[in-house]
Automatic annotation (TrEMBL), chain A:
Topological type in the membrane: Multi-pass membrane protein
Organism classification: Eukaryota, Metazoa, Chordata, Craniata, Vertebrata
Protein localization: Cytoplasmic vesicle, COPII-coated vesicle membrane; Cytoplasmic vesicle, Secretory vesicle membrane; Golgi apparatus, Golgi stack membrane; Golgi apparatus, trans-Golgi network membrane
Name by which UniProt lists this protein: Zinc transporter
Naturally occurring in which organism (per UniProt): Gouania willdenowi
Family recorded in the similarity comment: Belongs to the cation diffusion facilitator (CDF) transporter (TC 2.A.4) family. SLC30A subfamily.
Assembly and binders: Heterodimer with SLC30A6/ZNT6; form a functional zinc ion transmembrane transporter.
Automatic annotation (TrEMBL), chain B:
Protein name, entry field: Zinc transporter 6-like
Comp. bias (Polar residues): 427-447
Region annotation (Disordered) ranges: 340-371, 403-447
Subunit and partners: Heterodimer with SLC30A5; form a functional zinc ion transmembrane transporter.
Gene: slc30a6
Species the sequence originates in: Gouania willdenowi (Blunt-snouted clingfish)
Extent of Pro residues compositional bias: 405-417
Pfam families: Cation_efflux
Keywords in alphabetical order: Golgi apparatus, Ion transport, Membrane, Transmembrane, Transmembrane helix, Transport, Zinc, Zinc transport
Amino acid sequence: MEDKYSSNVLSAGKLGMVEVPEAKLMRYIVLLVISKVFKALGIFESYDVLKYVHIVQFIFILKLGSAIILLFFQKPFSSGKVITKRQWIKLLKHAVFSCVISLLGFFGLTLCGPLRALLLFEHSDVVVIALLGVLFTNTGGGPSKTRGAAFFIIAVVCLLLFDNDDLMAKMAEHPEGHHDSHLTHFLYTSISFLGLADHKGGVVLLVASLCLKVAFHTASRKLSVELGGAKRLYALDNLVCAVVLLPWVVVLSATTESKVESWSSLVLPFGMIVLSVMILEFYVESVCSAKMEAPRCARYGAVALFLSGLLLANFWTHPLTDQLWSVGKPPQQLSTEHVLSGGVLVSALFFIMSSSILSSPSRKGQKGTLVGYSPEGTPLYNFMGDALQHTSQSLPRFIKDSLKQILEEYDSRQIFYFLCLNLAFTFVELFYGVWTNSLGLISDGFHMLFDCSALVLGLFAALMTRWKATRIFSYGYGRVEILSGFINGLFLMVIAFFVFMESITRLLDPPNINTDMLTPVSVGGLLVNLVGICAFSHAHSHGAKSCHAHGSHAHGSHAHGGHGHSHSSGSGMNANMRGVFLHVLADTLGSVGVIISTILIRQFGWLIADPICSLFISSLIFLSVIPLIKDACEVLLLRTPPEHEKELNAALEKIEKMDGVLSYRDAHFWRHSANTIAGTIHLQVMSDVVEQRIIQQVTPVLKDAGVNNLSVQVEKEAYFQHMSGLSTGFQEVLTMTQQMESMKCLNDGTCIM
Amino acid sequence: MSVLCVCVFQGTIHPFRKTHRSMVGKLVQEFRLVSSDRRSWRILVFGVLNLLCTGCLLMWCSSTNSMALTAYTYLTIFDLFRTHCRMFERLEVLSVFASTVLVQLGALFILKESVERFMEQPEVHTGRLLVGTFVALFFNLLTLLSVRNKPFSYVSEAASSSWLQEHVADLSRSVCGVVPGLSSILLPRMNPFVLINVCGALSLCITYTLIETNNYNAVDTASAVTIALMTFGTMYPMSVYSGKVLLQTTPSHVIGQLDKLLREVSTLDGVLEVRNEHFWTVGFGSLAGSAHVRIRRDANEQLVLAHVTNRLLPLVSTLTVQIFKDDWTRPLLTSVLAPPPSEGHAHFSDADPLTSTPSKQTPPPEFSFHTPGRNVAPVVFPAPSPHAHRPYAGLGLSYLGVPTAPRPGPGPGPGLGPRPHAHAHSFRTSSVNLGFGSNSQYRHYMP
């Protein structure tokens, strides 16, 4: 049913994998669900066991038990190829890694309880790989995958922030008390070093070890092929793990006293854990992934596991279950730990949704490009392009290249150095703010970061300006600079607006300001910004001067025409640099204002000085931005550049007086970028004139007026005759006629009757 | 015409444009014009209402101390930008770009504020929160649905869909998989403005319930971040689209068509190559362009020009084609024997002093092979139609083959016949008319 609505013919159902009907798979699904329920039981049980047994001993017993059973079933030594020495070494490494991962996993289990461990750690590889694909590559596979990834993150955040675990308080009481060994002690201290509570530390630890687990599984695929199957590898791995852990366990049991009274009472729980967690789940998973495709397997498994985990968490500490299990277990001491909370419920919901979304088959087919149509009329798509054209640059090389580009030219170099200075100041401020726990400093640091975004924009525009022209950007990227100047101007207007609003609310109700911290910060900011002003004022003065020159005595540049213009291309009319300069200027004004108001408040206690100062500053910023925005608007609106208007008029008059030229129409001249003025003009000439000669005469005249990208269309009477002959353009000629008429009426004021 | 000019002067609606010509007398005059037109009255009323509503909401924001409501209020301010009426084509693009960028900058500001709030979450009072949400939602939807804004609706349809739209489309597709009856409601593309308004209101409602029940004040900041991100997502494609128009780029959706036409042009008889082709959009939708066409030495320039223009004109409404030939100074037939007098090229870049004065002696190249010649003029003219005015009359042309039927309308009576003065008169334009954006120039883009 869903396929009916998918836009593409090639969606998963029709041309993808052939799906086996549901009925045949039913028993496997049931088997999978049962094994998952047992696994959840086993995890809950092992949490209880881990309260009394040391974690290393626990893992050793687990590995040993499963190794014995698997040796019995798989017979890894008597069947299959002989294992070489190199393979044994690889196996050893593999085993060490798997020991570390199960250590981390079970340690996380002790930290945040069985339900949370289940939710965080027991995701299948498919889900995690899809998640990482969405997070770190662009080709995630459509919006649904993105949504799944967002759900996953929300679920983890829910566990971190909104889960009020009761155990947290208890843990805080004896943070260093009951650690059994150096290992757990080390882990605890590393978590507390991160500044997290134990429970939250467990969440982070579990997420990290989940990623490790997936990476480990992916890496161990090659080894499993070498050894002849995943099952043989698993059996051998368990055995080697047990061997690796044996010396540690011996040392541990010799040095520390065990909390377990009788090992015999633990035989049953251990047997159950080994069977459910290690053996049953492994076999069922391998069977199911052989019969069904992996995504579906992951989907059903995750849903079953999480739901049974939720149910068990509700009933595990229930009195009824206590009676049931009291045979094999020491009596319960702590009945209210790691209970269900709203946060856990919500996050479990999100986890279930995200794993079902992420494990659903992706519709890669939607990315194909239409090539054409087959003789039958069905569309043909091309899927190769993506894979072939997708070449990614390595990150260090990219950084090196862009740095080189930045440092090549004056403008971008200035912006870059100033950006570095600004960022350094910001981070010093932020760190100092965190160190001294001063909120004012931190917020000022964020404000600086906010300002840095304007610098980044300017830097990016200065880089882009030098890109080569493409099919889409047919004149080149020079205009980006003007757009960036415009955006920076708007940015400053927004800032001025917010400062204005803030100062008005403060004017009505002046708050008490703590002036201790303000002075050094504002002096520092002032110094940084003064450096910036010094750096940028050079470029800016150039720009301003050239503008003035154009405005005041326009005929000055007329004398050396196009030549002079190409020289001033670097700094003249550079809207981008003007925007950046104004930004720095506004920041400087802000710092000065803060200093002045601080002095006034300290000396005279005028609390109202602060809002008045900011009111003044905001209006200054606003007024200073207006010329920039006006100029950028004129360029963006394709207006005739005002500084060339006189020359252009003169040039047009000159053209009209040329021999053979009857008239001109559609004369458009506009500034495209700092150093390009483009123009188009249609000339009507007498029929006995050579067109090329006219073009050759007209071009230098307009070039003298500053136009350096020109198209001249020379029309004779014959052209209009041909156009009317090609009567296909009837409508166009009609509109052209109307345009001409309206133009005549408006401009000459007379209609030719 | 009055409405067109009015909008530029409406101070409340466009605060920046006012500075261009802020003459009080003109403003008063324009205000009178506004009050005479019904449509602009409505817009004015909506603008004032919007201002009132925004002010009210801003006061509530400060009283509730809620960041999310502030973020939502900025969407209302955006509606204020939206309510302006028709303007000159290019100014429309600029206003769309400016308002989308302003809203995004506002969202950036909200993001910054919320980062600061995450560190020290102040208490949020929920008293006016829900009321403010519903007032803002109602008002936004009212403005959206009652004031039709042509440029904004055009951009929201033409720009690529935002991530919000994509997610909603994806969700609704799977919903339609379950309930097929909903397909007519859910499957068409959602209006992005309605979508963001509804989503913002929804997240505010969730905030309200969570704060009321569990006192999670951090939810307010989180939903402010969400609204800001949604604003980014909605506005970004539109600002990219209008920004590309402002950057004078070739719109990517016509590139295929253009390529096809240019291929056709380059296969025309006599055409050697097409280069320096620039195409861009002036307003939303109207394409302008210029191209240089190199042709064979013996081809008829006017014929090729007419053919090229004829091909491109349906797509590119404002077109300039520069024709050039190599070595045009050499006489055609003796080119092999006699050395050329000067190596002057047809390239416009070098100004040859030798050819700076026109030489009347050069024979006109009208005698080349494939041309019917200007005197033959194969005019296939439509029969004298009952139109109010003739299609080509205003051009001031003379057709030799034209049946001299009685001319209705303002035909150029004296302009008939090969009289160059008549042409000179009728083609003359005032030299004030420069550039696309200047005020007077725009008049002839309008019908």
